[in-house]
């Protein structure tokens, strides 16, 4: 019995190489298939804007592909684990390793180490690439895939209330008092919360107080008449600071920017439970890749000729997909305040780490 946690150098590199090649093969296959399906659904909206063509479709792919990679990398690690270990088991290589004195954990050690490296890569990729692609894609979709307004930090789909009145904007550009709203719709409501007036404008600028709509189209609900105004000032209770803290998208901000946004929202006296859970999940999410070899390890142990290899592979897949279901459910509960943010982000990981370890010990033959 070897006392080292890792097997020999040659065997470690052999298992790691097999694992990495299968991870990227499965990931490329998943991303290609899902990207084609996603592009089929969005291509009509992209090409509907005048002037859009093949280059805009390719641009959409460059923005959407990082999101697909980030989302399905843990699935790829799970499937690659099962494929790698089932193949080794089928070829009696696992039996040879155990006959040489290796324990189950030593057989899995190269895969777990490789998955930890993949988790680190996933975290860096999410922070540096996915967040920027998400912010740009959201801003582009908000303007119906037309020209994206130049901005230091575009936000999309703004929805704010000023008392009973509502202010909606497709996107916003600029910062501070120089903030500009694009694609603005303002609804004025009476004491019974019935809409009595609608104003639409291409842009609105902050007047401190209120927002000046440039040449808005006014619709009077009571008289059912439409008119064009030179300008109109609305929503005096909405400030740029209120807009900033009301539209914090965790998916489009890196972990440090999100921490600053959470502090700003907290200082404003607003609830930050959902943002706190998202912050913790930026750490636990990428680390889920390191959990997949443990959950899929059941496919490695047990005699292939016993006919139970397929059943073991299905059990490994079931454990992996059950983790993703529980992870999403816990995160949703954290967003609604049912769980503390830290528990919502980390409880599924710790729970399934214990389950995977228990299954590995109980099923090793």
TrEMBL record:
Localisation per UniProt entry: Cell membrane
GO cellular component, one term: ATP-binding cassette (ABC) transporter complex
Membrane-crossing residue ranges in chain numbering: 12-37, 68-86, 107-125, 309-326, 338-361
InterPro entries for the chain: LptG, LptG/LptF_permease
Keywords per UniProt: Cell membrane, Membrane, Transmembrane, Transmembrane helix
First-listed, main subcellular location of the protein, grouped into a coarse class: membrane
Biological processes per GO annotation: lipopolysaccharide transport; transmembrane transport
Pfam families per UniProt: LptF_LptG (PF03739)
Topological type in the membrane: Multi-pass membrane protein
Protein name: YjgP/YjgQ family permease
Organism: Novosphingobium barchaimii LL02
Lineage: Bacteria, Pseudomonadati, Pseudomonadota, Alphaproteobacteria, Sphingomonadales
């Amino acid at each position: 019995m070897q006392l080292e946690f890792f097997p020999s150098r040659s065997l470690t590199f052999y298992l790691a190489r097999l694992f990495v090649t299968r991870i990227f093969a499965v990931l490329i296959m998943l991303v290609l298939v899902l990207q084609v399906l996603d592009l089929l659904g969005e291509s009509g909206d992209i090409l509907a804007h005048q002037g859009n063509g093949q280059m805009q479709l390719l641009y959409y792919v460059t923005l959407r592909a990082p999101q697909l990679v980030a989302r399905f990398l843990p699935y790829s690690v799970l499937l690659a684990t099962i494929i790698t270990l089932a193949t080794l088991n089928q070829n009696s290589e696992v039996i040879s390793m155990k006959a040489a004195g290796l324990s189950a954990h030593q057989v899995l050690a190269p895969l777990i180490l490789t998955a930890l490296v993949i988790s680190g890569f996933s975290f860096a990729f999410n922070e540096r690439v996915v967040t920027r692609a998400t912010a740009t894609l959201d801003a582009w979709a908000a303007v119906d895939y037309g020209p994206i307004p130049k901005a230091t930090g575009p936000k999309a789909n703004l929805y704010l209330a000023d008392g009973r009145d509502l202010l909606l904007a497709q996107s916003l550009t600029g910062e501070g008092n120089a903030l500009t709203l694009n694609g603005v719709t303002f609804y004025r409501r009476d004491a019974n919360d019935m809409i009595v007036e609608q104003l639409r404008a291409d842009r609105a600028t902050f007047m401190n107080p209120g927002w000046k709509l440039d040449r808005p189209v006014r619709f009077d609900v009571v008289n059912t008449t439409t008119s064009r105004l030179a300008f109109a000032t609305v929503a005096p209770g909405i400030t740029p600071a209120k807009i900033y803290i009301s539209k914090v998208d965790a998916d489009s901000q890196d972990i440090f920017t999100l921490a600053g946004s959470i502090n700003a929202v907290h200082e404003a006296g607003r609830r930050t439970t959902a943002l706190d859970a998202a912050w913790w999940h930026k750490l636990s999410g990428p680390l889920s890749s390191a959990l997949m070899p443990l959950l899929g390890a059941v496919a490695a142990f047990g005699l292939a000729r016993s006919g139970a290899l397929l059943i073991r592979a299905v059990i490994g897949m079931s454990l992996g997909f059950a983790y993703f279901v529980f992870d999403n459910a816990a995160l949703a509960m954290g967003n609604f305040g049912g769980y503390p943010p830290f528990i919502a982000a980390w409880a599924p990981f710790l729970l399934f780490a214990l389950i995977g370890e228990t299954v590995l010990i109980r099923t090793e033959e």
